[in-house]
Specification:
alpha/beta; 15% strand; globular; binds pyridoxal-5'-phosphate
């Protein structure tokens, strides 16, 4: 693409596109494990990093490069790395940043598998993790030590939508020690809604399974950062430690999904706002957790850092027991009972039974995840139809 700085929509369509030898409009699926060298000398030069060019798909593939360049541009980072899953992005990044003896300060409310990785798995390798409520950045300051190598969080948090001030947390971590890597999982927003690097984060991770692909047919992830970190990630965490590389076919589907990212996110945000306003006034609903509602605790910080809308994710607290909630959700006709999020279909799940079942009862309570909490990923259907379905089900609880 030419040097001119294009707008978001133009970038999501055009960045990463290189002229194909047969004139193909879309980047083909380079379904190949390895790449042919013209000579031994050329192979040697590629391995030595003296000549650009592909070697082996675990180290790079043109279909994957295309979407890496797109997502780096959309997040405002120098470079990006595609991965086989969001968890591949998260684990490869943590393996690259950490060694035995290091400490992590992590948010106490996280995606279930990220929590399991930080709470148990990674600690078996001699990494200590301190979980704090980052809703108050002061708690991060208190947890920092000279061994802290990583500060890790999501905002809005999954599933309580708690908003964390990226700028405040990044500043106090870097004032304490500029070498600390501040990592933000930006899955709930996609690069359209929020760009954490702009607010001082060092690394952004995504589950591209969600909004980035947006069509519910891929498991994939991305890491976005400066070129030096991405090179390091490519040559250690990803190449040697996890091997969690993105497949060329998934990259093709992601390139297809990305062409409409801005339009989808605008509609997700608009639909979610309508659904949130309906739920806000329904008698079966104790509380609506949606950053777009003016009376939500994190609304002001969300309005600052979620620059292009409040997204499609929300949770509701129902005035009902676990059994009553289950019986009500089983009556849904249009909304789909499923985990995952960011798809065209409205997806509804019960965190205490599903995504956050890795938390103990005490951990659930500490993170504010009650048995009456229901998470909704508002899709792209007509919002009136989603509201009608929710109304029928919620009316059974009053
Ligand atoms: C889904 C999700 C992940 C994990 O991504 P996978 O693609 O399922 O591996 C990580 N973080 C958040 C916030 C998620 O929603």
């Amino acid at each position: 693409m030419a040097k001119k700085e294009y707008g978001f929509a133009t970038k999501q369509i055009h960045v990463g596109k290189h002229k194909e030898s047969n004139g193909a409009l879309t980047t083909p699926i380079y379904q190949t494990s390895t790449f042919e060298f013209d000579s031994v000398e050329q192979g040697a030069a590629r391995f030595a990093g003296q000549e650009n060019g592909y070697i082996y798909t675990r180290l790079g593939n043109p279909s994957v490069t295309q979407v890496e360049e797109k997502v780096a541009a959309l997040e405002g980072g120098e470079a990006a790395m595609g991965t086989a899953a969001g968890m591949g992005a998260i684990s490869s990044t943590l393996w690259t940043c950490l060694k035995a003896g290091d400490e992590v300060v992590a948010s106490d409310t996280l995606y279930g598998c990220t929590f399991a990785l930080l709470n148990t798995d990674i600690q078996e390798f001699g990494v200590k993790v301190n979980f704090v409520d980052m809703g108050d950045p002061e708690n991060v300051r208190k947890a920092l030590t000279d061994k802290t190598a990583v500060v890790y969080f999501e905002t809005p948090c999954n599933p309580t939508l708690k908003v964390i001030d990226i700028e405040a947390v990044a500043k106090l971590a870097h004032d304490f020690n500029p070498a600390i890597k501040v990592i933000v999982d930006n899955t709930f927003n996609s690069p359209y809604i929020q760009n954490p690097l702009k607010w001082g984060a060092d690394i952004v991770v995504h589950s591209a399974t969600k909004y980035i692909n947006g069509h519910g047919d891929v498991i994939a992830g991305f890491v976005i950062s400066d070129a030096e970190f991405i090179q390091n990630l490519k040559m250690t965490g990803l190449k040697n430690m996890t091997g969690a590389v993105m497949s060329p076919f998934d990259a093709f589907l992601i390139a297809r999904g990305l062409k409409t990212l801005d339009i989808r996110m605008q509609r997700h945000s608009a639909n979610a706002m309508k659904v949130a306003e309906f739920l806000h006034d329904h008698p079966a609903v104790e509380k609506v957790y949606y950053p777009g509602l003016p009376d939500f605790e994190g609304h002001e910080i969300a309005a600052k850092q979620m620059e292009r809308g409040f997204g499609g994710m929300m949770s509701i607290e129902l005035k009902a027991s676990r059994e009553e909630v289950a019986a009500a959700l089983n009556k849904l006709q249009l909304c789909t009972l499923a985990v995952s999020l960011g798809d065209a279909e409205t997806l509804i799940e019960h965190p205490a039974s599903m995504t956050h079942s890795t938390y103990t009862k005490e951990e659930l309570e500490a993170s504010g995840i009650s048995e009456g909490l229901v998470r909704i990923s508002v899709g792209l259907e007509d919002p009136e139809d989603v509201i009608d379905d929710l109304k029928t089900v919620l009316d059974t609880l009053v």
